[in-house]
Design goal:
The structure holds two protein chains of two kinds. By secondary structure, chain A is mainly alpha-helical. Chain A has a domain at 33-62. Chain A has helices at 2-20, 24-48, 53-61. Chain A is rod-shaped and about 80 Å long. The N and C termini of chain A lie far apart (78 Å). The model of chain A has no long low-confidence stretch (mean pLDDT 73). Chain B contains eleven helices and ten strands. In chain B, strands 1-2-3-4-5-6-7-8 form an eight-stranded antiparallel β-barrel. In chain B, a hairpin with a 2-residue loop joins strand 3 (69-80) and strand 4. Residues 22-26, 288-295 and 297-317 of chain B have low confidence and may be disordered. Classes of the chains: A mainly alpha, B alpha+beta. The A-B interface holds A 2-3, 5-6, 9-10, 12-13, 16-17, 20-22, 24, 28, 31-33, 35-41, 43-45, 47-48, 51, 53, 55-57, 59-61 and B 1-2, 4-5, 8-9, 11-12, 15-16, 19-21, 30, 32, 35, 38-40, 56-60, 62, 64, 66-67, 69, 71, 73, 75-77, 86, 88, 120-121, 140, 142-145, 223, 226-227, 230.
Chain lengths: 62, 317
């Protein structure tokens, strides 16, 4: 019984740890680019949401 | 056996914590350094009236901290209807943008646009090459005001580089030590804090506008000056704003109505623009910032001469 439990725990450990360990060297650049693009996209969506000529005019004449 | 089992259970619980690495650095929020263009418009295929697409575009310079390393990237996104493209290899000029479009990691096209001020509105006009077709593109620039924190940060960095121009705002914080020692880093932080809490203070706004004259590739700066210059068209910085934001467009379309007016103003401020650019290039070269090329500026050296200077490593900060 103890032996099976030990093997099961060992197996779980391997699966768990291999899933958690990242490879930052290979994914870092892509992640930075994605983060940057996400921020710009968020700004874009906020800025152009319901954008009309009236909005532009009001903002300038306020 | 029991001991080994206990060790394994502990390892199972503890390992994920170490496996995640430096969480603090990885989770640092990206910071926008510049917003080159934000807007929406229409792309039309000149050979097919019914082939047109809605454009949404955003391009900016973003500082990203990842695993303890800071990187500044000039990137963006472009939507043509619902198709999304990454915008990379960006070259920003005075009122111009050139970039390549990517779908995933594959380069699929390019965008080329120049800005022109029409009726108090920024319009980006250019072409988009994608999917074997060339579209004429018209994008209305969206309104993006600078936020108090952004104003405070820009004022702080401006005062770091130009302490003599910051006497008024240093006086505003009401600290005698800082009045006598404006270059002290703690005083710059006090200025930042003052402008963060008083973003509408005329001294903070004044410094921000001064910063903006040298950073017209930022939509927040263009907006700030557009609003201000509506009531102060004869100020030098407003003339500089008008000339620089339409520079590329007007070089190519000198007879366009908007450019005839600009041509008269250009003669008046040509030398001042040149002097500002030389000062700015000097600051950039001495700051040794490591970055990809993002700016392509034109410095006029004579009435007809236009010398292209590729200013690599420019951040404008």
């Amino acid at each position: 019984m103890m032996k099976e439990l030990l093997l099961l725990t060992l197996l779980l450990s391997l699966i768990f740890v291999s899933g958690c360990v990242q490879q930052p060297a290979t994914t870092g650049e892509a992640t930075a680019e994605k983060q940057a693009m996400d921020v710009v996209e968020q700004e874009m969506n906020e800025a152009i949401e319901n954008m009309t000529m009236e909005d532009i005019e009001n903002a300038i004449t306020e | 056996m029991k001991n080994l089992f206990a060790v394994l259970v502990v390892l199972l619980l503890v390992m994920p914590v170490f496996a995640q690495g430096p969480v603090g650095n990885a989770a640092a929020k990206p910071v926008i350094q510049k917003l080159a263009i934000l807007g929406k418009g229409i792309a039309t295929n000149p050979s097919d009236l019914m082939d047109f697409k809605i454009i949404k575009i955003g391009i900016g310079e973003v500082k990203v901290s990842l695993l303890g390393e800071e990187t500044e990237l000039v990137v963006g996104v472009l939507y043509l209807d619902s198709d999304k493209y990454k915008v990379k290899d960006v070259v920003l000029g005075n009122g111009s943008i050139e970039a390549n479009l990517y779908s995933g990691e594959e380069k699929v096209g390019s965008i080329n646009a120049e800005s022109v001020e029409k009726e108090d509105t920024e319009v980006w006009v250019g072409t988009i090459d994608v999917g074997g077709a060339t579209y004429n593109a018209y994008v209305l620039g969206a309104v993006r005001k600078a936020r108090p924190l952004e104003i405070a940060q820009k004022v702080r960095s401006f005062c770091e580089e130009n302490p003599t121009k910051c006497k008024a705002v240093v006086k505003a914080i009401g600290n005698r030590y800082c009045e006598k020692n404006p270059t002290d880093p703690s005083c710059r932080e006090k200025v930042k804090s003052f402008c963060l809490n008083h973003p509408d203070d005329h001294r903070c706004k004044e410094i921000f506008k001064e910063y903006c004259v040298d950073n017209l590739d930022d939509a927040r700066c263009r907006y700030a000056l557009r609003v201000y210059c509506k009531n102060h068209p004869n100020e030098d910085r407003c003339k500089i704003f008008l000339v620089q934001t339409t520079e590329k467009y007007c070089l190519q379309h000198p007879k366009a109505p908007a450019c005839v007016k600009v041509a008269k103003v250009r003669k008046l401020v040509k030398e001042k623009i040149r002097a500002r650019r030389v000062r700015r290039l000097g600051r950039v070269r001495s700051s040794q910032v490591v970055n990809p090329p993002t700016t392509n500026e034109t410095v006029e050296t004579g009435p007809e001469a236009n010398t292209e200077i590729n200013t690599t490593n420019v951040t404008g900060e």
